[in-house]
Amino acid sequence: MSLTSLVAGFALLLAAPAAHAADPPLRDLGTAKGKVIGTAVTGSKLTGTYGDIAGAQFSSLTPGNAMKWGSVEPAQGSFNWTEADQIVAFAQAHNQQVRGHTLVWHSQNPSWLTNGSWTSAQLGTLLQNHINTEVGRYQGKIAAWDVVNEPFNEDGTYRSTLWYNGLGADYIANALTWARAADPAAKLYINDYNVEGVNAKSTALYNLVKSLKDRGVPIDGVGLQAHLILGQVPSTLQQNIQRFADLGVDVAITELDIRMTLPSDSTKLAQQKADYKAVTAACVAVARCVNLTVWGFTDSDSWVESTFPGQGAATPYDANYAPKPAYYGIAEALGGTSTPPPTGACTASYSVGSQWNTGFTGNVTISCSGASLSSWKVTWTYGAGQQITQAWNATCTQSGAAVSCANASYNGTVPDGGSVSFGFNASWSGSNPVPTVTLG
Ligand code: G3I
After folding, report:
1. What letter would DSSP give residue 414?
2. Starting from the edge strand earliest in sequence, which strands make up the sheet with 402-407, in order?
């Protein structure tokens, strides 16, 4: 290592703050603006850091997959509510709403349903029973249901699906009517993608909602999924939200993510922050935009990378749960004043992994964005007598409550856009509060 890089690296170390999210959290910022801020979640992950962030930052949860027909009734008449129940219970424990997702869709249906050969009457009965069963089970616990998901083609014609082909366009009105009967308090939505701006598809959705309202069919809101591409927030987003509001329905941004070509870098992350801020600001600008939900809050829990090879980094937190510039874009549009780490910073975050009655496993991740490190040292002070017994991927010493961990010989380098983690075992008793860590 050259003297210059050592000095440059050390200067960054001294400047680097520990990773922290905005204070107050997004859910409180949203409340102040009359907005519910949500995330899609995977039930099995709702522990540890993932659960902490999901509970602290968001006031609404949407099961990413757990309430889809294929999840809840994998074999006809045989139900599995485990994950859906778990998410609803977590939401109740954290004073959060649940958006039910989704009752009528062409995708993620059980094979017994899609492979069956049904008359129109049988299909209608199956759908009615499904809606009765699922909406009825969670009656009073779901703020809003995505009753019908993705009914349109890009040109605004109806998508050819099991439902449209078997039941005609009125499957939509019938599904809404059945859902209302099963839970009169739940808000009922139609949800689709590529309907964020004013275009043929969103105009078809607009015309459908208008005609449903004219007919007295229960419809309370439209969901704009908002699976967006970096730098491509539609310029007509606010105008489009406003025209639905003027029709007399609520609007929700239901599945926001903004994908980029990998690898991410500080320029792309700054653009992504601007994009998240623009979407949030459009919702803030229209009173009837009631909910803004991200489709997974961490890059480690996103559908994007498996669906669009080479694309990703689409959510507000990185894969190590450090808030990205995008997080602060949302916070700023909600009136938050917390400032993100300065551009070109490396940060350290501490999390508790598994914990048992006498010990626990901890993890510290050092992440860099717009900067890089050639060596690092992380320090913290324990507040409740915790004692490190063993560390890996770092050399740790503890003197009293003061802990200091430096890189091992092989992991001092943290590249721009990259991260390095180390772990340790420690003992605890009484309580195990998370300390504030300092990089440098
Ligand atoms: O659960 C199985 C697991 O057992 C198996 O090992 C694994 C192997 O592929 O697959 C797992 O299922 C996957 C499931 O997500 C749960 O992770 C499916 O393959 C995968 O196709 C499924 O993808 C979901 C996708 O909908 C399906 O279309 C995504 O997680 C989910 O985020 C996504 O969400 C949709 C919304 O519902 C509607 N709008 C678009 C949005 C993105 O596609």
Report:
1. B
2. 394-399, 402-407, 377-381, 438-439
* Given the residues 154, 255, 305, 332, the one annotated as active site: 255
Find the 66 Cα to ligand 1 centroid distance in Å: 10
- Atom 36 (ligand 1): residue with closest C-alpha? 64
Maximum alpha-carbon separation in the chain? 79
What domains are defined for the chain? 8-14+341-427 (2.60.40.290), 24-333 (3.20.20.80)
* Residue 226 near residue 266, CB atoms below 8 Å: no
Sequence-ordered alpha helix ranges (H) in 58-102: 69-72, 82-93
| φ/ψ of residue 296, rounded to 5 | 95, 135
The β-bridge partners of 104 are 148
**Among residues 150, 156, 144, which one has the least CA distance to residue 207?**
156
Is the C-beta atom of 370 inside 6 A of ligand 1? no
User: Which residue out of 41, 145, 303 has the highest number of ligand 1 atoms within 8 Å of its CB and is therefore the one to mutate?
Assistant: 303
Strand ordering across the sheet containing 345-355: 345-355, 359-369, 419-427, 387-392
Q: Note the pLDDT tens digit of each residue in 361-407.
A: 999 999 988 788 989 999 999 999 999 999 999 999 999 999 999 99
pTM of the model: 0.78
